């Protein structure tokens, strides 16, 4: 069993008007998913930067509609995950799909919009996507500011509603501010900056803070987050996992592939049905208990409740 905390299939489905069942443009489609060991897949709502501000919330709702109409409703063996029990009650032949939000641009300064998204099933709130929004700066914003008062209200709401705050893409100051306030912390897709010096990766101090906060780190398969050389292999990814474990994060690692969010992947790990190759390598390198923790147990144990 594997749980994957991040993919952008909804974005591709919205952009390209493709169907979920078997379209080859998707790294995560029904056919590939059924042929993979992934039991639960998180689907991110990411509204592209070029969308006019006044249209962003509508696009977010359109993506939720796609999730329901194209992923949930047509298939009796795909269940909508809204709570931990939904995962625990999955039958052996069933898959689980969960909604997440990547970036707060779509809500502007309207907290009621975020409340609505949570009521529609969003279980993970990404505070930013590289650039600034009204809650916090992203990692790509030169100002590098932390949480605004509105951003603090977002975290208060997340704590009340028992949903994750996702610190992928956030500024360093924003990370420090948010990790102090949030009850349920995750970085859905990032690796180790010590192993690969990428701005979106986590330095050792951030890793320690996530461990202290009892949060989660989603190992990502984006090549530039894994190595600086031309090609990345599964063996290169293992170095990141080993470093996290060495740092004491064995109980805090999950997967956050970022399938459909990039075209720069690790060799033999570019779609959801390639998870078999990663699973094999994991079991060769780590103990059974460690593999179970990374694959699904850590996610389940930290699920907000």
Automatic annotation (TrEMBL):
SUPFAM superfamilies: Metallo-dependent hydrolases
Transmembrane segments: none
Domain of life: Bacteria
Pfam families: Peptidase_M19
Molecular functions per Gene Ontology: metallodipeptidase activity
InterPro entries per UniProt: Metal_Hydrolase, Pept_M19
GO biological process: proteolysis
PANTHER family per the UniProt record, alphabetical: DIPEPTIDASE (PTHR10443:SF12), MICROSOMAL DIPEPTIDASE (PTHR10443)
Designated name of the protein: Membrane dipeptidase
Natural source organism: Gracilibacillus kekensis
